[in-house]
Structures are given as C-alpha cells and as structure tokens.
Backbone:
C-alpha cells in the first residue's frame, strides 16, 4: 500500500507506445521526402510578408530507410507545454526524449517549467531517463507543468534567444493549441531572421478538437478526454433510465467549438445535444434554444418518460447572436455608466438601470434571464471591464429557463433537473492507447524534424484511421495553415480554428439520428477506457475522426 | 455505428462471472451446512418477540458436493430492486436466473417493475433468456427499474401475498439496502405467520458501504462506485498538480456514512478528506471544520503550493453537532412562527426574525452561514415541514466559509476554488470484475436458499479477499443483524447501520498518513476500471475491504 503508483499506473508504465513504420528504425533511418513549395490557406501575400524566411516550406513525409544517416553532434532540445492540459502530453515528451537519445548518446532534453514563461525566463530542468520513465503513458502536464503566458513580443523573443544560446539548443518544441502554435511559427521566423540556429517545432494539442485541418487530422488529447466524458455521460444515461425521474443537464468543457459535445453525443446518443455552431448558423435566440429543449421534454413526458439527458457545450452563449449583442452592449453601458447601474440596488433595479443604456431587444433578453445570471452579467467583469462569459453557468441558466417555460405551458409533470459540468475530470486522464501512440509518434516525428534542422513546422502524423501500420509521419509548415484574422482590433496571422462543420459527416450523422435519440432511450454506454483488452475495444479511436476519414459509415 | 452496444459493452457481455467453488457444480450439488441457532446483535428479547417464526435460524454455508439432489418442481421467483442504483444489480438477477434454471428447466423469474411498488401492485415482467442476456455485466437497474416505496404495512404485505399466490411464487428476492432488507425480513416473518409458502430472501446492496457486519463483508456496488469516483478524483488531482492554481472541493455521494470518501482517499491520497464520523466523535463545530481546511491551505501556500484537492462526504453537515441542533431548532421555529419569519423580507431580515426563536448558539451559527444557505435552510422544506439537509451544497458552503476565513487571516494568495459533486457518475457504472463476480455469486446463492425453502435470510458471500477460489457462499438470518432503534418516535427493529469505525484499520491507515498527504502531492491516480488486463489490475478489490480483512498492511 505504500507504493507511489496505483496498480494500473504500474502496469501502464510498461506500455510501449507504437510508432508508424517510417519511425520504427529510429530517427537516423527516417528518410525525408519533401513536397512542393506551399501556400497559406488564405491571405497568401500577407502571410508571406509576415514570414519571409519560413513561408512556402514544403510538406515533409518520412519513409523508413535501411541506410543510416550520420548523426552529427548531440542534440539539445527544450520542450514547453503551453495552455490547458490534454491527455498524452507526457508521451509527446517521451517521443522527443527517445528520438533524440536514439540519434546519439549525449543528446539532452530540457523541460521549461510552468509553460512559455519558463522558456522566456530560462527556468528549466533537464529531463533524464529516471524522470522520463516516471511519466510514460500518464496523464497531466505535471512533469514540467504548463502555463498560459503568450510569447508574442520581440522583447520576449529576444529573451528566448538568450536562453537558446545559453543552453546551446538545437531546437525548441512547443506543445500547444492554435495560438501557441501560431506563436511558435512567429518565433521560428524571428529566429531565422536573427540567424539563430535553433529550430522551433510545434505539436498540436487541445482537448477541444478545434486544431485540425487537412494535415493535422486531430489534436492530441481530444480522444481520451471525450472518452472519459462519455464514460460518465453513459453512466448518467443509465442512471436516468433506471431512476426515470431526472433530467440531467451536462455541460462539457470546450472554449468555443462543440466538437467535444458532438463526439460525446455520437458515443452516448443522449436525448439532446446542443451544437453551438448550428445555433449560430440558424441565428437562434435563447428563447428558441429553450423551446427546442422544452419541446423534447414535453414530448417525452407525453410518452411516459419524464427523464432524459441533455449535453450543453460550454461555449454556447457566445454563439447565440442576441446574447453576443447583449454582452457587447452591456460592456459599453457599464464602461460609461457603471456608477449609475451599480448604485441602483439589487436586481430588478440594477437591471432596470442597465436597460436604459442598451437596445430594446437586449433589455428584453436581459430581463428574461434568471436574477442570478443578470447580476453576474453586470457584476462579474474581467480586468478589462468585460463581462466574463465563461463564468456563466449555462447548464443552470438553461434549467431555470426551461422550468419557467414548462410552467407557462402548464406542464403536468415534476421537472427534476440535475446539473453536471465535466472538464477537469478528463483533461488529465491517462491517454488512451490511441493518444498514447499518437503523442509518442508526434514527439518522435518532432525529433526527426529537429535532426534535420527543420523550423517553423508542426509535427504531423496522418492516416490515423488506417491502423498504425499505415500511419504516416512528417512535418507541415505552420504558415500553410494560417490566415489573417481580426483580433483585438488588429490584423494577425493565425492558424484557422476548426469549428464544427455543419456539412461534415460527424454533424450530419448526428443530425440524422437526433430525433430518434430524443424520443427513445437509444443510449450507448461506452464504459471506461480499456488498455489491455481486445484491439477493437482498446485501440479504437473516436467517431469524429472515423467519420471524417470515411473509416465508418 | 448502428450497433446498440458500445464496443466495450459487446466485449463485456461475453464475460462469465466466476463463482465460489461451492456453487460451481450448480445449485443441486450445493450442500447446505447449518450452524447453531443464532441471536440478534442486540435487544434479543424484543427482536425475538417481533420475529417469533424466523428468529434464531442458523447461519448456512454451502459446500460443493458430488451428490445431486432431486429438483422437485420448477421454481417461480420474483425479484425486486429497491432504492438507489448500485453497480452489479443486473448480475444478482443473472445469478438468480442461472441458478433456478440450473435447478430445473421451466423455472421462471419474474421482475417486479419500478421497485417494491411493483411487487405490491403486481406489476411485473417475466425475465427470459433473451432479456437477461442483454443485461449481463452491465450497470444500472434499467432491466426492471427501481423505486423507493417502503413495504411496511400489513395492508401492503397482504397485497404481496395476493401477488405471490397469483404467480405461484416459491420466493421473492429483494435487492436493497439496510431498510429494504429489514422490511424483507418483516415480510418473511409475515408470510410465515400467515402460512404463505413463499420465501423472502434479501441481497445486500448499496454504494454507501454501510450495510456490512461480520457476515456481510461488503455491500455490492461500493467497489465499482468508489473506483469510478477515484478515477475522476485522480484525474482532478493530476490536473491540480499540473495547473497548480486551483483548490478542488469534491463532494461525494453517500447519505450518511463516509465509507465512500474514506475509500476514495485511500485510493487517491488527496490533501484533505473529511470523515463525518470523526467530526461527530470530536464534536467539532463548523468553524473548526473550516479552520482545519484553512490551516492546510495556508500551510501549502507557504510552501509555494497554492492548490490542492479536498474530499467532502455528502452527509457532512448532519454530523456536525451544532448544525444538527440548528436544524432541529429551525424546524421548531418555522413550525410555530412561519408567517413571521417568512414575511420578514430577505436575509438578513429573515434570519433576524428566525433568530428570535432559536438558541443563541444556533443564531450565531445561522448568521455565520453564507446568505444562500441561510435562505435555503429557512425556505426549502420537505412535505413534513422539515429543513432539507440533503439540498445543502456542502462543497460550496465550505468554499465560501473558507474564503471568508482566508480573508480574516489576510491570506496573500488567490484562493481559486472549484467544486464538483460525484454521485450519479458512479451509481450506474458497469460492475468491476469484483462486483460482477460478487453479485452473480450472491444471486446464485439466493437461488440455493430458494431451492431449500429458506426464508428470512440474506444471501451471503464471504472470505472475499482470499481469491474467488476460497470465497464461501451461504445465507445469514436477517434477524441476526438487527437491533432496536428509535425511528420517527417509535421503536423499530432495524439492521444496524455500519458507520466508519474510527478504530478500524481503514480509518487508522488514513489517519496515520493524512498529514503527509496534506503537505505533499502523494496523489495516486487509479485510472479507469480495467476488465481485461493483468489480474492484479482487474480483480483487485478495494482498500477498505482489504484492510478490514487483514489482506494488506
């Protein structure tokens, strides 16, 4: 009982992540094939101007070769974990570690502590084998922790140069989401411009699943996180179907895109799943969203089923157009009339005061909200004075508004609603076999890119639904995924965020089946992630990826 | 994708639960050994008076025999799921099903729908092989649903007799917690008195873990539920240790006893775990509980660790003596002065009005609570006019009071607290191998008791930490576990509820280590329940059981 590892942790430490064929003979036998010069997805001229040194680099794919390249000197690599945790981060690091050690003994891996600030401030540890072995196949980012500092300014970049020089780094690998990878590309360009011979390589991380495109089939962590949430959702569905008296409203983490909710719905077939992107596309009002839920509750009640499960994406309210308008009008109103509004006393007085300074439509919406939410919108503001949308408990907002509407409709049943929020439960889960293999392969691919002094690339592993035998590894120039977007009043080059595609197969499958799922109890119970069983149980990836890649119908 | 089972569900359907040796040759080859006449744990005379026909029956143990008994006619058995869901209920039913079918073809299993009310009202389905096979090794009680009706009155018992006669039942098996098993024993006695030749057998179910004693080593469902919660707690600990900026307050389901919290603590080693029984024993005030948490937060902050994880048992407030006093005084005050208090306006006015009618100490406590909780205590009352303690969001109450105390102590850090409540996530999880085997064995043992016309017994499977080879099966007379307790103003025979024993090994182990766990990050990450891997991963049971049975140190 005094062990420091759980029994599963101990068994799982022995797992050897699988690699694509092209990497199995080690980095020195990975042959690099270069494609043609590339262009960014949009705004080519502007992106090219911003990245004169790194723009247009070719897509790289690796092949297994029998010839062994010579190694050159030891490789010194620094690694950074940026932003929210995602399952598999430790395996990316393990892939880099094993990759550079396989190139040549004496290669060193440094871990910058606490995220990008660790790189900027030169706070690091050397990751040796004993340390690395403790973290193989584990969840979390605790090996070096993560952080949310953004590396954007030249002052910061210059500090990074100092650190890179001090540690004699051949490369820095930044493991992060779309923003962090954008910043990594800017840093790569800056290093090139300053003739600093240190590569900067990115790795696609986010449980949100919104960092993907033709070359990045999925971001790591999405698979494990959604499987963990789906385990819980399935259990709750089973509970709902056994107790037959509760409606469970389950909010799922995810800053903006609804990929997590959509995938969880495909895995568990709940009665209701809201997709933010669809609500925005259809320009639905909050009332319409509430009505759509109430309609299903009333219909199920009519069929003798006063219970169900509804999935709510965390980012929902920002996708309801009128809510967006209300929030920006409130930001404006509070900026200019804060004293008047706050001195008006508690709601409804405070709301009345605010309503004088916003449009009629927004006033109506504000007054329709539960008191607690009204107060939150007017009182909880971030350091810039903006309403903190992320603090809104959307699942509770919906429960209150649904209850109100059920009263209006003279609903005869008892509306027994329970709310849940799943996020932290899955962000640090130990990676599924898929994420364990994918992450390790990404890290290993990064080591090959480092060996070949490639910079401004993201490590890429593709063909992910064809069996690991057929996975292909390589690198994609980050500029290729970029376009120009307006952020905080300025044009910025950014990696296009992938929202749920309403014409894509995952959404279409969901849309075709959701009416049946609403009426019946077609619940699926995925159960906990398995590591040791039959391959069809343990190595399966997620529906989103399989549908997008035409791997299932 | 159109399958009705998840991939794991499909694989898991094939699992054949293991049986103790004495049952492996089928119920007809299970030899029954009877012990001596028994006595109830306390109040022997009173219990004997109440159970003249069933009191004193011997403990039964089964042995495997080579001789086969003759079967007699087909057995008709009715089964009831009573109360909250617990993982493995379906396997108990499968054990009964396979058991009586193995006695003789033509035996029938009826499932009463929606809990004890289904028995009373004669609402049932026949469970045939096709239906049974859909539910083997699955979570939930959805095969026939459950319910909370209590069978206590003779009018109800007489209805049960009608149903038993109509279906020509040899036995009724009631799967439930302490109350349901008490009622089953009363029903058994009533049937005997009325010369109704239908046995009544109980099975020990509850995730709370508080139905246990010398003969019932553990209630089914506890193992799986706590493993599921521990998976999530471990993930959150990993998140806390990666992000290093949040304190997670995790409330765990469990009506009164803290077995779930204690076991989860042993599995995950959090920084804090409150044990209600200890708080009651030490007569701690709410303030002292809050201070004990704040002390740890401040000490960790001083060591550069402004994060942590705290486990909170759901039933906590009822174990804080002064809180119990406050609640009973408030019940009294509201019963006699409701109009005055409710018309006093919102808090603090309402609280002031209430405070006139309660003791000074209670008034002080009431005023020290966050406003929302004050209102809840005065406004949310059950149909009997009593404060609804179960609605109090203890985890949020503690967060608010901790934040207040941190301010008093001029805490320099930011107290970033997040709350969670885990209950529904685990109640209907698919059973662990342990619960799958244990439940199936309990059901199978019940079928042997039925075959031998035993009544007033609970099915019992013991020696649970010695490997299933050495598990022993049998039956324990329910009266043996009873004593007299005061309930709702009357003396009632009840099965003694097993609270956490502060002198027991599980608590002692926890108490010896908690200071280290508070300071450090000795987190254990149990990960998801595994079904297919190495036996030490998949077949292990829980620490509580192993420590209580001296199976580990």
Residues:
């Amino acid at each position: 009982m005094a062990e420091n590892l759980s029994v599963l942790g101990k068994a799982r430490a022995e797992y050897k992540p699988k690699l694509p064929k092209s990497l199995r003979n080690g980095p020195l036998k990975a042959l690099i094939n270069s494609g043609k010069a590339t262009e960014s997805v949009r705004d080519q001229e502007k992106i090219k101007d911003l990245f004169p040194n790194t723009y247009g680099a070719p897509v790289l794919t690796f092949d297994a070769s029998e010839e062994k390249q010579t190694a050159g000197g030891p490789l010194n690599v620094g690694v950074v974990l940026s932003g929210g945790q995602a399952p598999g981060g430790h395996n990316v690091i393990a892939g880099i570690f094993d990759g550079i050690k396989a190139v040549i003994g004496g290669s060193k891996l440094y871990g910058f502590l606490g995220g990008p600030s660790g790189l900027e401030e030169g706070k690091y540890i050397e990751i040796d084998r004993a340390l690395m072995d403790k973290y193989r196949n584990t969840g979390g980012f605790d090996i070096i922790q993560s952080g949310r500092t953004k590396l954007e300014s030249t002052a910061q970049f210059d500090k990074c140069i100092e650190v890179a020089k001090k540690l004699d780094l051949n490369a820095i690998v930044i493991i992060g989401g779309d923003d962090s990878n954008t910043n990594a590309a800017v840093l790569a360009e800056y290093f090139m411009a300053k003739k600093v011979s240190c590569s900067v390589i990115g790795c696609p991380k986010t449980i949100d699943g919104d960092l993907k495109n033709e070359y990045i089939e999925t971001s790591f962590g999405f698979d494990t996180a959604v499987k963990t949430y789906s385990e819980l959702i399935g259990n709750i569905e089973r509970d709902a179907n056994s107790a037959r008296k509760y409606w469970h409203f389950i909010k799922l983490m995810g800053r903006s895109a609804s990929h997590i909710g959509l995938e969880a719905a495909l895995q568990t077939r709940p009665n209701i799943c809201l997709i933010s992107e669809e609500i925005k596309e259809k320009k639905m009002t909050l009332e319409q969203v509430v009505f759509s839920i109430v309609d299903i509750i009333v219909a199920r009640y009519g069929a003798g089923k006063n219970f169900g499960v509804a999935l709510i994406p965390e980012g929902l309210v920002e996708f309801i157009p009128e809510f967006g308008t209300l929030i920006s009008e409130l930001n404006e109103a509070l900026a200019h009339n804060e004293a008047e509004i706050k001195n008006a006393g508690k709601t409804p007085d405070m709301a009345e005061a605010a309503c004088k300074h916003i449009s009629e439509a927004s006033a109506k919406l504000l007054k329709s909200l539960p008191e607690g939410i009204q107060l939150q919108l007017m009182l909880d503001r971030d350091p810039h004075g903006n309403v903190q949308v992320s603090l809104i408990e959307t699942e509770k907002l919906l429960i209150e508004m649904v209850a109100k509407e059920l009263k209006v409709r003279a609903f005869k049943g008892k509306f027994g609603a329970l709310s849940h929020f799943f996020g932290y439960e899955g962000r640090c889960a130990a990676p599924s076999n898929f994420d364990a293999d994918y992450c390790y392969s990404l890290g290993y691919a990064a080591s090959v890119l480092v060996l070949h002094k490639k910079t401004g690339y993201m490590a890429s592993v593709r063909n992910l639904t064809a069996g690991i035998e057929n996975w292909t590894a390589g690198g994609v120039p980050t500029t290729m995924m970029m376009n120009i977007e307006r952020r905080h009043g300025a044009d910025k080059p950014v990696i296009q965020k992938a929202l749920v595609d309403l014409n894509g197969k995952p959404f279409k499958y969901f849309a075709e089946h959701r009416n049946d799922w609403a009426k019946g109890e077609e619940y699926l119970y995925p159960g906990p992630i398995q590591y040791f069983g039959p391959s069809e149980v343990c190595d399966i990836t997620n529906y989103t990826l399989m549908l997008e890649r035409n791997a299932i119908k």
In short: The first helix of chain B runs from residue 7 to 13.
